[in-house]
Amino acid sequence: MKRRDDLPIEAARDELDRGLRAERRWILTAPTGSGKSTRLPLWMADGIVPSDRQIWVIQPRRLAARLLAARMAAERGEPMGGEVGFQVRFESVLSRRTRIVYMTDGVALRRLLEEEREIPAGALLFDEFHERRLESDMALSLAVRLQKRARPDLSIGVLSATLEESVFRRFWPGAPFWRVEGRAWPVEVRFRGRPVPSAVSSWEAAAEALIEVWETYCEGHALVFLPGAVEISRAVKRLSGHPLLTGVEILPLHGELPVDCQLRALAPSGRRKVIVATNVAETSLTIEGIRLVVDSGWARKSRYDPVRGVNTLDVEPISQFSADQRAGRAGRTAPGVCLRLWTAEEHARRPAAETPEIHRLDLSELVLMARLAGLDPLKDLEWLDPPLPASLEQGTSLLQALGALDRDGALTEIGRRMGRYPVHPRWARLMVEAERSVCRRPAVWAAALAEHRLRIPRAFGAPSEDVTVRSLPAGVESDFPALIRLWREVRAANFNPEVCRRIGVNGAAAREAGEVARRYLALAEEGIGTRQDPPEPLETDSEAMARCLLAAFPDRVARRVRPGGREFQMVRGISALLDRSSAVGHAAWVVAAEVRPVEAGGPPGGVCMSLVTAIEPTWLAEVHPLAVTREGRWGWEERARRVVWEEERRYYDLVWASVRRPAAASPEASEVLVRELLRRRLWPEGTREAFEQWSGRLRVVATLCPEEGFRVPTEADWEEGLRRLCEGAVSYQEVQERSYRSMWDTFLTPAQRRRLDRLAPEWIELPGGRRAAVHYPLTGDPFVAVRIQDLYGVEEAPRVAKGRLNLLVHILAPNQRPVQITRDLAGFWRERYPVVRRELQRRYPRHEWR
Question: Which residues neighbour 814 within 8 Å (Cβ) at sequence distance 6 or greater?
């Protein structure tokens, strides 16, 4: 390949050369294809950076790192790994001679954390920084810290097609901001007259739009932007069968393709091509000869949902900036056209730029990496956009649940071991747990296969008849044996695309998962001090594997709502549905390695669980003892009318054991009894009447004899009396059997009781030795009810309260019905009695009448 000296950046070489020698922090904006990713590293290697130091060109994508390294090596006329090499996860082509290293931001971040001031680089170039990936942001913060503390010679540059200058002016005051203008040709942007109905139909709309204008633009290649691999596959199939495109190469381009397929899409061709791509083709890669861009306006973006605790990969509208980048691909070599499948009004409402990942992703991995380096993410690092405290708190909480951090946020031994694995902390925790068990191999394979998003088609939910692939022991259910059987089948077919398509599996992802699993296993065996040839996946002790999964997914535990149903209740009150492909049919308790937002028609705010494994609830306390709590409370058994003690064992907020038993006598149980009696108005027989009598007596004395110092009782006194009556009791029956007659007198001293009995007696003596009860209602006047015969000889109504109140006398006939209510007994005998006697004597002749 010939070296190209006509790139736009060449015109600014002298200015950049002077600036790069003088500055240690700088920003360069230049359009894609201007040479910033290739020329700049060469210039720095040719005399700006010391010969014993490397230049790291940090890319957001593996594909770009590989291809740029290959292009540079070809231009230098050397094999890969000579002067130019690359390093991505689990793959590197480097040598002692390598000066220019193209690497992904994830690799750069780990090297900065692990090697710190010993990194061999003299310059770090953060390319395509506008994508604002989480790893890039953190790596930049670590680089700035390293430069300040130990490596003032380190040159740090940020490269992108465009950046918000004000943000960097605030972050790096005084740093130069260089711009290189490209030689782009004009691009005519056309908006669609109506919006695309949905992201689901974007592939169909894009294919139809391309076919519609194909003959109008009969030169150059076409680039179609779609949100993901599924939409790309459908569009490629649709376009490949159209007669108008006979002889045209229809090529997919996305990150899940094998490298050779990616290279084929990017390679020069004498035939016209239609490249159907994700946003991987937006800025990072140079594709020559594009004259037509069809932009669906959609992209898949990761976001963390803190309510459900899941990462979501949603199809969302792209920003105005991304749309401009996509349109610019059509004007690299000649005038071009960009067809946008949305309206101009929609475009004006779109955000100007993408939200940085640091503000929309789970930060648990960032927190762990910072802790591994002994850093506090907020206090020890300078950020272009600082992480949100709430997101850091969520990440910290997850790491504490995983055992990576203690309650104070300090790194634990488990956390240090987790740091060896370049995966999300959940899967790192799984592999650390598996290091100490008999399920190391299946745990590693589970992590690799799940990480590459292999799904289990429904046909794989049933146990295999292949005796070499054993299902789990009877009574234990899991989806992972089916996932491993799935991988074995596509591996046996040598990952043939047709076989994979028929099964419903991404063959490239399955192939890469196998390679990654072997890498993980090597790390696991290195961690426990053993080495052996990487074996194939196999099943093992199901309980050990389930416990490892439980350790890695503490907040993905769920309890089945009803036997045989798909509905589960997950930690944090989240409603969950079991994926229909799951082999877990009967387990009451499960742990899910994967959850995703529930599909339309499911419970609002719920999730769908897949890669599920049955667990025993007794394991919860063994694996996560700090998450298990005992919560006891008093209850009421309505049928027995008694207090009971209810005790629940909870895993976070999920109840997994409950015991209910009769309460033992205690002050607390008695207080509950009082509360329930009051709430349900279950007065033991006679108690309320007794209180009202006592209260009425005090009311009379307090009102008529204030000098005695008595007060009128209140409802609080009633409750207190009931409380004293219930002391030591736990049931209504016990209280019912107790004597309450003198209970209220306990509120008074003996002297007060004697005075009360004298001033407001409960009984009065009648002629003939009889006694009559005095009634003291809460409202109205006190009274006695006496048979007329018992009043013979009584000329005045009885008096109480030092004679200040005449009692009302209810004069009763033999049938106990009042014939007169009066305070004037003398007047009754004189005026009313003769009439009453004649009438009653006829009806009750046997009674004594005077």
Answer: 787, 840, 844, 847
Give yes or no for a contact between 89 and 66, defined as CB atoms under 8 angstroms apart: no
Instruction: Identify residue 447 by its one-letter amino acid code.
Output: A
Retrieve residue 825's tokens: 């007994």
CA 610, 613, 614, 618 torsion-angle sign:
negative
Specify the pLDDT at position 727. Answer: 92
Give the chain's mean pLDDT. Answer: 86
Q: What confidence tens digit (pLDDT) does each residue in 695-710 have?
A: 999 999 999 999 999 9
One-letter amino acid for residue 710 of the chain: F
Give the whole-angstrom CA distance, residue 453 versus residue 505.
10
Q: What does the pLDDT read at residue 537?
A: 57
519-544 pLDDT, tens digit per residue, is: 888 887 775 555 444 455 555 557 88
pLDDT tens track for 229-243: 889 989 999 999 899
* Contacts of residue 788, Cβ cutoff 8 Å, sequence gap at least 6: 811, 812, 813, 819, 836, 840
Strand ranges, E, within 255-309 = 273-277, 290-295, 298-305
φ/ψ of 566, rounded to 5, equals -90, -10
Terminal C-alpha separation, the chain: 143
Q: Which two tokens stand for residue 482?
A: 């089916």
Q: Residue type for 352, please? A: A
User: What letters, b where the CB count within 10 A reaches 16 and e where it falls short, cover 378-402?
Assistant: eeebebbeebeeebbebbbebbbbb
- What are the Cα distances from residue 258, in Å, to 252, 265, 497? 11, 11, 11
Give the chain's count of helices (H) and strands (E): 28, 31
DSSP code for 377? T
Instruction: Give the residue from 450, 408, 655 showing the smallest Cα distance to 552.
Output: 450
CB distance 745 to 735 below 8 Å: no
Q: Which two tokens stand for residue 133?
A: 């990936």
- Separation between Cα atoms, residue 733 and residue 643, nearest integer Å: 11
For residue 567, the cross-strand partners are 577
d(CA 325, CA 329): 7
